[in-house]
Amino acid sequence: PRILAIETSCDETAAAIVEGGKTLLSNVVASQIEIHKRFGGVVPEVASRHHVENMTAVIEETMSSAHVTYEDLDAIAVTEGPGLVGALLVGVNTAKALAYAHQRPLLPVHHIAGHIHAADLIADIKYPAMALVVSGGHTSLIYMPERGEYEVIGETRDDAVGEAYDKVARTLKLPYPGGPEIDRLAANGEVTIDFPRAWLEADSYDFSFSGLKSSVLNYIHNANQRKEEVIQENVAASFQASVVDVLVERAQRAVSAYQAQQLIVTGGVAANHALREAMGKTFPNDGDVELVIPPLSLCTDNAAMIGAAAQVVWEKDVRAGYDLNGQPGLAIK
Ligand code: ATP
Ligand code: MG
Ligand code: FE
């Protein structure tokens, strides 16, 4: 099927058209980063309002750049959750209106399934597969015994990794979003500070980043108090080294315990250069495990990934009614 997908779970107003879950016909993302920058983070009410303002133009551009009309579409898909409720509602209500007006089935998509199925757009997922989802709100290891089955085997017990990046960046007085800023600084820094790594219990696949975050924040505050120079590049590189060590160790252990054929690394933080490099070294694609990391533009929020995941929803014969609602805390299943 040819699917129009809509994504508004956070601060990106996005639409895309995907065919058969694999072929991207068009992909439009209107980012609100510039708007939220001056607040130092996403302001939910402001995000919702801008989604309303941008939605129509984003969909029109998506349709015209794919050279399709509604007659050419088989379904309308939308992110149902998780995310900011007011933001989700804009996408959900738009999708409902389009599905009703054009009498097309409505496909509800889980945002994290979207991040995972971004992989379908660049590779054939081989099952059993393992996905490491690292984003602004999630740090999860998800085991997929087969297509359409998701089993969360580990997740963060406190901060998501992207959240830790953003908070550390804020303390370094870097602009929002902090992830790409830290990434850039770290490239010119050295690992000079031994920040902690939360290994947790030996058999756990969970994560914890709040201890690391506090430790970095304390380091900066102490240095400031003692009027010692804080070399931002080195703080960034040291913080990032700690994050990457833990993510690589967990992924490696999960892949081998579950005998996964593939490891998919996805979500906004998968845009991180150090993480991509470390994963590439650990899984060199010459062994049993194939590493799949979507390109940067498919790692951060977009609707192409929602269109790819919608294909799975279509195959499972799941359809939403006009009572579909935004679900801020929706679990993956
Ligand atoms: P979720 O997907 O959990 O609902 P979200 O949609 O807000 O959360 P994404 O858009 O997937 O999250 O990812 C945004 C996060 O990714 C932010 O925390 C941002 O700082 C981080 N990020 C983006 N690029 C990089 C990078 N190059 N290095 C590290 N972090 C990055
Ligand atoms: Mg975002
Ligand atoms: Fe996301």
TrEMBL record:
Superkingdom assignment: Bacteria
Role description: Required for the formation of a threonylcarbamoyl group on adenosine at position 37 (t(6)A37) in tRNAs that read codons beginning with adenine. Is involved in the transfer of the threonylcarbamoyl moiety of threonylcarbamoyl-AMP (TC-AMP) to the N6 group of A37, together with TsaE and TsaB. TsaD likely plays a direct catalytic role in this reaction.
Family: Belongs to the KAE1 / TsaD family.
Binding positions for substrate per the UniProt entry: V133, V134, S135, G136, G137, D166, G179, D183, N272
GO molecular function: iron ion binding; tRNA N(6)-L-threonylcarbamoyladenine synthase activity
Major localization class: cytoplasm
Cell compartment(s), UniProt: Cytoplasm
PROSITE patterns on file: GLYCOPROTEASE
CC cofactor note: Binds 1 Fe(2+) ion per subunit.
A single BP term in Gene Ontology: tRNA threonylcarbamoyladenosine modification
Cofactor: Fe(2+)
One Gene Ontology cellular component: cytoplasm
EC number: 2.3.1.234
Binding site for Fe cation: H111, H115, D301
CDD domains according to UniProt: ASKHA_NBD_TsaD_bac (cd24133)
InterPro entries, per the entry: ATPase_NBD, Gcp-like_dom, KAE1/TsaD, Peptidase_M22_CS, TsaD
UniProt xrefs under NCBIfam families: gcp_kae1, T6A_TsaD_YgjD
UniProt source species: Geomicrobium halophilum
Gene: tsaD
Reaction(s) the record says it catalyses: L-threonylcarbamoyladenylate + adenosine(37) in tRNA = N(6)-L-threonylcarbamoyladenosine(37) in tRNA + AMP + H(+)
Keywords carried by this UniProt record: Acyltransferase, Cytoplasm, Iron, Metal-binding, Transferase, tRNA processing
Protein name as annotated: tRNA N6-adenosine threonylcarbamoyltransferase
Domain spans labelled Gcp-like: 24-307
